[in-house]
Here is the input.
Amino acid sequence: MTNGATGPLDGLLVVDLTRVLAGPYCTLVLQDLGARVIKVETPAGGDDARHYGPFVRGKSAYFMSLNRGKQSIALDLKAPKDRAVFEKLVAKADLLVENYRPGTMDKLSYGWAQLHAMNPRLIYAAVSGFGQTGPYKGRAAYDMVVQAMGGVMSLTGHGGDQPTRVGTSIGDITAGLFGTIGILAALENRHRTGRGTMVDVAMLDCQVAILENAIARYAATGNVPGPMGARHPSITPFEALRAQDGHMVVAAGNNILFAKLAEALGEPGLATDERFATNDARTQNHDILKPRLEALMAKRPVAEWLAILDKAGVPNGPINNVAQALGDQQIVARNMVVSSDDAVAGTLKMAGNPIKMTGFPDPSTRGPTPDLDADRAAILKELGL
Amino acid sequence: MTNGATGPLDGLLVVDLTRVLAGPYCTLVLQDLGARVIKVETPAGGDDARHYGPFVRGKSAYFMSLNRGKQSIALDLKAPKDRAVFEKLVAKADLLVENYRPGTMDKLSYGWAQLHAMNPRLIYAAVSGFGQTGPYKGRAAYDMVVQAMGGVMSLTGHGGDQPTRVGTSIGDITAGLFGTIGILAALENRHRTGRGTMVDVAMLDCQVAILENAIARYAATGNVPGPMGARHPSITPFEALRAQDGHMVVAAGNNILFAKLAEALGEPGLATDERFATNDARTQNHDILKPRLEALMAKRPVAEWLAILDKAGVPNGPINNVAQALGDQQIVARNMVVSSDDAVAGTLKMAGNPIKMTGFPDPSTRGPTPDLDADRAAILKELGL
Here is the structure.
C-alpha cells in the first residue's frame, strides 16, 4: 500500500537545532511522516543526548531511539564559515525547529525576524520550558520541573508523603507533539499565504493542556483534585484490582458493563444492590465496593480473569511491564516495535510510528542514526559549497 | 497581532462524530487552530460526556471543557432523512474524525471506501483503542486499560503493591494529539495529490510511542525498567526532595548545576566528594546522596529554597496542585487559563491553547459550548435543506 512516497511530508526539509528530548521527539515524528531532517549539532560533542546512557558498544541507545533516520552536520554557529553553511541551509529549508532557552537564537542573530527575512517561507518552531514570553521565559526547565509546576504530579500517585512523577517524560513529549501540530498547522497556512509563521510552544503550557477533567472539577466545584492512585475519579469500577496473583485493570464504565462484571465474577446480585446500582452510587460507595470485588477476584489468577472478562465483554487489561508490552501480540501486529541498524551497536529495537496512514509504507526497519557530522560532505556538496 | 484569520486552519470544515475524550480532544485542538467543527451527535442524549460530572447548574463542566467553540447537530445515522443530511455534510467537509470501535462506520455504510468515494478530498481519521487492524481490533478500550497494557503504569509510582495510573488520561490525550498530527500531515499531502487519506490511530500504540527511554533501557540492557517514584532513572539529583515543610523538585542535570546546588545548600564540598563528582557516580550513590541533600534542605521551607535555587541558577520548581498551577504567574501570562460563557452555567474556566503562533489571535475568551442539536437550523439552511 505505497504510492511511492515515504510519507505525507515527503520532500520537506527540516533544519533541526534541537537537543535531548522535546525537540528531537518533534523532529522524529516529522521524520516518520517522510520529512528530511538535518540535525545541526555543536562540533563539541553534538546533541547532549549522545552522551546519555544506556550505551550499546559505546553508542547511546537513548540517542538512537530519538534520532534514527535523521542526518547530521556539525556547525559552530559562532564561526563565520559555518554560519554561511547554516544560512544556505535555512534558505532551502521549509521548517526550522529548536529547543534552546529563549534568547539564544537572538544572540546568534538568528531570531524570528532575521530568519523570516532570510527565508519568508520558513516555518520556525521554538519549543522551550516556559515559552518565549512571560516572567519565567529566561529560566531553564526540565521535564520533572514542568510536571511538578503544571499540576500533573499533584494528580499522580497515592498521596501521603510520596510525590510521584509520571514514569515517562510527558513534559517533553507533549511539548514535542504540540510543537509538531503547530508546525503542520503553519504549513497549511503557508499554502494560503506563501509565508512562514513562528510557533512558540512551552512545556509548562502543555502540562496545563493535558490536565483534562481536573480543571473542570476544580472550576466547577472549587475543590482541588488530588491523586487517585490507580482509580478514575468519577467512574466506578474503573481501576486496578487485585486478583489472586497480582493486579489487573477493570473498566466497567456503565451499568450494563457493571452487570456483566458482577455476573462474570459470580455475584450478579451486586448489580441490583442499590448501593451499586448506578455509577454515582458506585463511586460514592467505592470503599465498600472495592473489597467486595477483590474478594471475588482473589479466587483466580490474573490470566484467568483476563480471559473471563474478555469473554463477558467487560473492558479489562493486564498491567504489562515494558517487556510484556513490547511482546504483546496487538502491539507487534501494529508494527509498534521497529528496529534500526547501527554499524557499531548492531540492531536496536525502538518504538514505531503510531500514525498509520492509507497509501504510505510503515516499514519495520527504520533508517540508521547518524554519527556526529556524518553527512557533512554530502550536505555541503548539495549546497554547492 | 492578527491577520484577520482566527487561526491557521481557518475555513476548514470538520465533521466530528467523536465522543467522550480522545476524539473530542483532537477536534478541540483543530478548533483552537481555527477549523470549524460540527459535532454530529446521536439524538438520544448526544455525546456521552454531556452526562459526565461535575455539573454546573445541570450542565457538564467536563463536556464544556472539551467542546467549547464547536457546533452541534443531532443526526440518527440509521434514518434515511438524517443520512441525507450527513452525506451533504461529508460532501462539503475537509476532515471527518470518529472514535467508534472499529467496524461501526462500516456497519453504517460509511467506511473509508464509501466516504472516499463520496468525497475524494475528505481526510478521515479514526481514533480507536486498539486500531483498525490486529487481533484486538474489535475490543473496547479505555484510558486506564491502555495505560496498563502499554507499559506506562509499570513505570509510574513507587512499586510494591500499589499500581499507579498517570493522574490524567494520557491514553486518550496522546491519541488525540497523534490523531491531530496525522490529520494535518494528510492535509499537506492533499495539497500534492488532491486526495484525502485515512488516518488510523490507536490509543495503545500511542502509549508505546511515549515509553521514551524505557524502551532504550530495556533494548540495550535486557533489564525491565520499573517505577522510580519521583526520580529520573539516569540523572541525579533530578527528583522530588523534601524541604522543611514539604517537597519540591530539584533538577541538577550536570556537574556544573550540581556544584551550584551544593553551594546553594551550604555544602560546596559535596560537588568534589568523589562519590558525587559525576552524574554516573551520583546515580550509583543516590541512596547516600539523597539523605545528605534532604538533611540540608530540612533547614528551610520550600518557598525559601525556590528563591535560593532560582538565584543560584539551579532548575527547580514547586509541586503545584491544580489551583496553584492555574494561578501561577507564568501560566496566567501565557493565557493558558481561558474562559467560555454558557447561558445557563455561566462563565467556566478551562485550559487554553498551548500552540502560540505569530500573526494569529489567542483570545482569553473562547466560544460557547453548543447544546445538543443547537445548530441544526443554521446547518440545514447552509446545506440548502
